[in-house]
Amino acid sequence: MKVTEKDIKTVASLSRLRIGENESVEVREQLDKFLTYVENLQSIDTENIEPTTYALPMQNVFRADEVKPSLDRDLAISNAPLAEDGYFKVPRVLEE
């Protein structure tokens, strides 16, 4: 697929990027190479390949969820700039 100057300007506008005239040729070549690569990938036969989420086997790397003593609430709240009824108080960010 050949990428045109118009394609570059359209993509730049949609992504709110400024691509100078001197950069335009390099960007067009890079985008053309990328799209050619994608076209090559589309020609691969994936008929008998099961879809996967990850290319490599994944395993849970989290620690066990165990109850442990934590920081005392009053001590944590003592560092807050604003607190009310045992909770951190923050400025409202949503209007009603």
Strand content: under 5%
The mean pLDDT is 88
Radius of gyration: 27 Å
Low-confidence runs (pLDDT<50, min 5 residues)? none
Distance between the termini: 50 Å
Q: Note the overall shape.
A: flat
- What share of residues is helical? 25-40%
- Helical segment tally? 3
Number of strands: 2
Q: How would you describe the oligomerization state of the chains in this entry?
A: single chain
* Structural classification: mainly alpha
Arrangement of strands in the largest sheet:
1-2
Order of helices and strands: HHHEE
Q: Could you please describe the fold and organization of this structure?
A:
- It is flat and about 65 Å long.
- The longest helix has 22 residues, at 21-42.
- The two termini are 50 Å apart.
- A two-stranded antiparallel ribbon has the order 1-2.
- It has helices at 5-14, 21-42, 73-78; strands spanning 83-84, 87-88.
- A hairpin with a 2-residue loop joins strand 1 (83-84) and strand 2 (87-88).
- It contains 3 helices and 2 strands; from the N terminus they run H-H-H-E-E.
- With 96 residues, the protein is mainly alpha-helical.
